[in-house]
Amino acid sequence: SYELTQPPSVSVSPGQTARITCSGDALPKKYAYWYQQRSGQAPVLVISEDTKRPSGIPERFSGSSSGTTATLTISGAQVDDEADYYCYSTDSGGNQRVFGGGTKLTVL
Amino acid sequence: EVHLVESGGGLVKPRGSLRLSCVASGFTFSSAWMTWVRQAPGKGLEYVGRIKSKPDGAATDYATPVKGRFTISRDDSKNTLYLQMNSLKLEDTAIYYCTTYARHCSGGSCYSYYFDDWGQGTLVTVS
Predict the structure, then answer these.
(1) Which of A12, A80, B22, B82 is the most exposed place for a label (fewest CB within 10 A)?
(2) How far is B120 from chain A (nearest CA, A)?
């Protein structure tokens, strides 16, 4: 079955840049999407189609994708950005809808 | 503003059944594709299944772990999405979220599908 691999945790100080990666064999052909889930809350889409930021998402959130790795970048991370982040994509045939295992971002 | 409110969760014994509901507002429900996504306690997100809109055939799709046990349906007259869960297992314990399933299309072909708006979820405990 298809898998997306994320680091379990990333830690940065306030104001630093946080980068969270997501690796998957189909990412050269399929978009990656990123979701933020704060503790006890439902997920929120922060990046769609590799690089697009939905309305209402701060400009410090950006996305990129190269080869088999998609990256979520938070420039000037804030304490309020502490959350679990999940990437989402599909296999090359579009049949398996898969989330990465999630990355816990700590900002302190 | 899109609003999705799930209900119907609770405690159920293994091999039991439960039906979840999700009432939608703030958008044209009858045109929307909808999904269920779940999250086991302390774990990550897992796709459960999807239903297309009736104009698109109302076709359903399920993740392997729930295929044959779960059924997604919709009542557009009530703006409500359902998840019928049968033969429940311990590993089905999770928060169940309903979501809109957005798609971007161009020239008659759709190239982007993703979970857009989410409800707050309802907890199902199988024990």
Answers:
(1) A80
(2) 5
